[in-house]
Amino acid sequence: MNRKALTAFVTAAAVAVAGWLIAPQFATAQGGGTVEVEVKFNGAPQVETLKVNKDTEQCGKEAKIEKVVVGGNKGLVNAVASVAGAKGAATAKKASIDQKGCAFHPNVVAMTPGEIDILNSDGILHNIHTYSTANPSINKAQPKFKKTMTEKFEKPEFIKITCDVHSWMLGWVAVMPHPFFGVTDGSGVAKIENVPAGKQTIEVWHATLGKATKDVDVKAGATTKVTVEMVKK
Amino acid sequence: MGNGALSARWLAAVAFSVFVALPSLAVAQSGDAGVGKVIYERKCALCHGVKGDGKGPAAELLEPKPRDFTSGLYKIHTSAPPGKIPSDQDLFRIITAGMPGTSMPPWEVLPEKDRWNLVAYLKSLAADKFKQAPKKIELPKEVASSEASIKRGKEMFEAIECHKCHGTAGRADGPSRPELKDDWGQPVPPANLAKRWTFRGGASRTDIATRIAGGVLGTPMPAFADSVEKPEDIWHLTNYILSLGPEKPNYSTLVTVNGVTGAIPDDPNAEYWTKIAPNNIPLMGQVILDPRNFNPSIDLLLVRGVYNDKEIAFHLTWDDPTQSVADAAKKLFADAVSIQFPSKFTAGNERPYFLMGDSSDAVYLLRWEAGKAGEASANGPAKIKALDGGETTAKTAYQNGQYRIVIKRPLAGKGDERPTFQPSTFVPVAFQAWDGGAGETGTKASITSWYYLRLEPPQSNRRFVIPPIVALLTLVAMVLIVRAAGRTRGRS
Question: Rounded to two decimals, what is the model's pTM?
Answer without folding.
Answer: 0.85
